[in-house]
Amino acid sequence: MSGRTAQGPRRGWRFAGGRSGYASNCVLVRERSQGPVAVQTTGRPAAGANTEAPAVGNALAGALREALPAGSQVAVRWRDGRGLYGGSELGADAQDRADSLLNGSRAACSEQRLEAAWDLDDGTRVSLCAHAGAPLTAEAGAAWLALAQRLVGAQLVAARAQARAESLEKSERLQQALYEIADLAGSDLEMVDMLRRIHGVVGGLMYAENFYIVLYDDVRDSLRFIYFADRIDPYVAEPDLEIRAAEMPNSLTLALLRHGEPLLGPSVAIREQLDVPRDIAHGPDSEDWLGVPMRREDRVCGAIVVQSYDRPDLYGEEERALLAFVAQHILTALDRFRAREELERRVAERTQALQLSNRDLQAEIIERQRAERLQRALFRIAELSITSETLERFYAQVHDVVSELLYARNFYIALITNDGEHLEFPYSIDERDSTRESRRLGSGLTEYVIKRGQALLADRSRIAGLEAAGLVRSLGSQAHCWLGVPLFRDDHVVGVIAVQSYSPAIAFTVRDQELLTFVAHHISNGLARKQTQDRLVAAHSELEQRVASRTRELAQANAELLSQIGERLRAEQQLTHQALHDALTGLPNRSQLLERLESAIVRAQRDVRRQFAVLFLDLDRFKLVNDSVGHAAGDELLVEAGRRIVNAVRGDDTVARLGGDEYAILVDNIDGLRVAEELAQRILRALGEPCWVAGREVFPSASLGIAMWHPRYRSGAELLRDADAAMYRAKSAGRDRCAVFDEAMREQAVRILDLEADLRRAINGDGFVAFYQPIVRLSDRSVIGHEALLRWRHERRGLLVPSDFIGLGEDSGLIEEVDWLLYAQVMKQLALGGEGYVSVNVSPRHFRAADFADRLLRMIDEAGADPHRLRIEITEGALLDDVPRALRMLRTLRGHGVLAQLDDFGTGFSALSYLHRFPIECLKIDQSFVAGLVGETRPESVAVVRAIQALAGTLGIHTIGEGVENDAQLAALRELGCAYGQGYLFGHPAEAYSTPLRQAVSR
Fold it and tell me: How many angstroms from the chain centroid is the CA of residue 587?
């Protein structure tokens, strides 16, 4: 870029007489009777000329001439020890004579000519010549010469002292400027603010209104203008923008960087010197231009440039030296600033890494403590089933143990009576229902579990959904969360064990369900004794109960029939209204809203300037109102919320209730998103006003999502979907606020869709492969089999393990298809022949399918594989989920030669009472116990593994230790009697093998 200029007063570092570092020879011509002195400038001497000559000469001329007659001429000349000249002349004759005296001529005096030459104490040589306008006496001439010598000496000493003072002042100002630059480099200012202040500091040292800083990368041959200030040039610096040198070949700045030395003078002259063509794209030309490179270890890494557009000869050698000195300090300041930024970035990264590591460590500690506590409880329950004196005592003790593992303050056991028509409750502890009377089997949650033969984990919303579907009917106090599992005897459901919570702060999990399922199997053994004792007592009353129960059912059915007839007549009258309106609030329902949305979309497609928005609103913590003061109060709050929303919107807006505590508002014909946001805030403020519900003051709030119309939408349902997504974003951000659906939400949804599409394409193609990990005999490390492990060879992301996509596969239901693809590859491998077996993992999902065993056997036959070389690995959860079905499948597979192994044994519930019932060929000891055989947890892990080995020995099955990674673990397993092992010590999972399965593993 050519140059930058400015107007205004000049501050500091300026010498009289042209460019700094030069002094003009001055000729002072003034008669005694005349007015102002005229100064004539002659030439530009070399750098370092005496700059105080004009000022001192003028002072001497005025003083010495006053003591001579009118018309006199005076010339004073001097030369210091460094060879610098100066002086003042009044008349050409006197000037020539003074120069001769200064160069060594002898002085002579007469009546009209007075001359002298002498040396001062500092070595300065001085000459004086005067031509008097009238004759003088010898005394007067001598007196004038003596006075002149003293006056000249005094004036020169004073001028030298003033010059030294000015130099000292300049040095102090320079030092202060450098201190300010150093302070700015260590401050917390942003880069732009720091450079702006550095510009101000440089402007205090020289003319720098047009000023810029450029950084240069000589390896990449590129520039970055990190600061730019100019009065004329409109260029705006972008510090992060990298400009290739090839993009600006005619730039004077680039020429300076490649030249590597300071450049000074008019930009036209510099361009001619460096052979740089004129290019108007790089800014206008400058009358004076000064550029100084910045260096780091003899490499040019940038430059600082100042310039003037309308004032020539503004910069000199002194400004060049000053700017070069300041440039290195500015480079140091930039380096310190970048070093500080890099340090802060690294500290932030390290802090985040430490936080993540600490979180993972805490999670691992909690999980290990939970597993140890669970394992102790499981063995205790197994012991109680044998040692409890009575069934009632057993129930109480089991309740105590369950209470240590999960929330069981409300706990009961329900049994089907011998007649199969009633429920009795031999054990019940409850905060609200102190007693539970026997009842006829109906449509309660307990009966629902009995009918399905499967566990049920339901919160209030799911219970409400079952009630709405007519599947259950709540009895007794309504629970916030309910968990019940069936009790089996001889593959038949005989009762239910249940826990429940009345507080929204307490909810049960899937793990709690698995635990309670395990407990139920232990209770089943005691139930057999109890039912035998009670059978005779129950037989007598069974007939009477059945007759009474049947009579009540008939009466109830008759009453319900009459009620349904009347209800149908009323329903026909209200059908038209209910089809388009919400029954509770009278507001439009979803169907009517979708119709109006379709109309709004049509209008917007016709008129591109027309805009509208959909607001999706959900009341915060509405369930708390239902649970605390009842559904009636909740309905009252829903009606009040609908009324407030209607009052807050415009007259032509549509307010609809979609169901539950969800509302939607169609805001049509608006001027943009701002109108929708203002309306959303008005609705939230209206809803936030307190109201009285069921005698209580309630402060409702809501979360609201906004979706603006965009031509990409094809239906109102899509708009509702995106507004709903934005509402959930607002709710996750803290509730009582609104959020706008943006492209980030859309991109996240698109990424999930893309991954699901990739998963489907991989299923249809060859994206999934089987990797095999060897299973060895610990005594001689010979391979006896392999475990087939699933891998996905993604076309862009490379090889993925199941944890990278299993969640999406389970959500989409595609994971079962992936498993079958893996099974097919294993069958083909087995069909090639060889020795040893291959085991495949089977999830509980497959065990829920009634045709799993038949389908697997057909696949074996079609591939021509040997079924005796196939093993399936299942978890304890799969066995307990549906015991009768699991038994049938395992027996069917075993009958055809396919054996079953129990995977991750010891981490689940390890039911000792049921394990002997299943045809299990092997127990695989979980790797957490194997890892614990070495280190601080050795005693506990040894006890667990020894117990597992004892159990396996009693059942006549063998064990496999998983996750064996070192010789110490191998030695511990062999010492405990474990015969087989699997882990990285013996081999990592690898793709399809080409050698026979049975082979020696190198030590």
Answer: 42
Minimum mean pLDDT among 335-344, 623-632, 712-721, 800-809: which range? Answer: 800-809
Split at pLDDT 50, 70, 90, the class of 108 is confident
**DSSP H or E segment with residue 484:** strand 481-489
Closest to 976 measured CA to CA, from 942, 930, 927: 942
C-alpha span between 87 and 96 (Å, rounded): 12
Asked if 741 and 761 sit in the same domain, the reply is no
- Using CA atoms, how far residue 328 sits from 12, 295, 318, 332, 891, in Å, is 20, 7, 16, 6, 86
Whether residue 34 lies inside any domain: the answer is: no
Q: Diameter of the chain by CA atoms?
A: 168
From 525, 540, 555, give the residue that closes a domain: 540
pLDDT of 304 strictly over 90: yes
CATH of the domain at 465: 3.30.450.40
DSSP state at residue 869 = G
The total of structural domains in the chain comes to 5
| Domain shared by 314 and 402, yes or no | no
pLDDT in the model for residue 982: 94
For 622, left (φ over 0), alpha (ψ -120 to 50), or beta?
A: alpha
How many other C-beta atoms can be found within 10 angstroms of the C-beta atom of residue 348? 10
Residue range 399-429, pLDDT digits in tens: 888 888 888 889 999 998 888 888 999 889 9
Q: Which domain holds residue 896?
A: 755-982
Token pair, residue 964, equals 């064996």
Kindly report, residue by residue over 739-774, the tens digit of the pLDDT.
Answer: 999 877 777 667 767 777 777 777 777 788 889 999
788 shares its domain with 721: no
Work out the average pLDDT over 790-794. 86
pLDDT at 776 over 80: yes
CATH number at residue 730: 3.30.70.270
Which pLDDT score, from 0 to 100, does residue 872 have? 92
Is position 522 within any domain? yes
Q: Which two tokens stand for residue 104?
A: 């060594």
- Average pLDDT estimate for 92-111: 80
Sheet bearing 125-131, strands edge to edge: 85-90, 73-79, 125-131, 113-119
Residues 201-235 pLDDT 10s: 888 888 888 999 999 988 889 999 989 999 888 88
Instruction: Give the CATH number of the domain where residue 942 resides.
Output: 3.20.20.450
Phi, psi angles (nearest 5°) of residue 127: -130, 150
Write the CB contacts of 872 (distance below 8 Å, at least 6 apart in sequence): 839, 840, 841, 842, 856, 893, 898, 899, 900, 901
Q: 412: which strand partners?
A: 428, 498
Contact 142, 46 (CB under 8 A): no
Q: Which of 505, 493, 460 is nearest to 479 (CA)?
A: 460
Cα-Cα-Cα-Cα dihedral of 855, 860, 862, 865, to 10°?
Answer: 180
Residue 750 lies in a domain: no
Q: Are residues 431 and 479 in the same domain?
A: yes
Residue 782: pLDDT over 90: yes
- Phi, psi torsion values for 710, nearest 5 degrees: -145, 145
Tens-digit pLDDT profile for residues 823-860: 998 999 999 988 899 999 988 888 888 888 899 999 99
Asked whether residue 492 falls in the same domain as residue 620, the answer is no
Identify the bridge partners of residue 288 per DSSP, sorted by sequence position. 308
Q: Looking at the structure, tell me whether residues 852 and 932 fall in a common domain.
A: yes
Residues 839, 888, single domain; the answer is yes
* Final residue belonging to a domain, choices 679, 711, 745: 745
Does residue 263 form part of some domain?
Answer: yes
Give helix then strand counts, H and E, for the chain: 27, 34
Together in a domain, 815 and 719: no
Least confident of 30-34, 118-122, 521-525: 30-34
Q: What is the pLDDT of residue 622?
A: 83
Strand pairing class (920-925; 899-905) = parallel
Q: How far is CA 452 from CA 528, 716, 805, in A?
A: 21, 39, 32
Q: Which two tokens stand for residue 929?
A: 């116990």
Count of CB atoms situated within 10 Å of the CB of 7: 11
* Amino acid found at 654: T
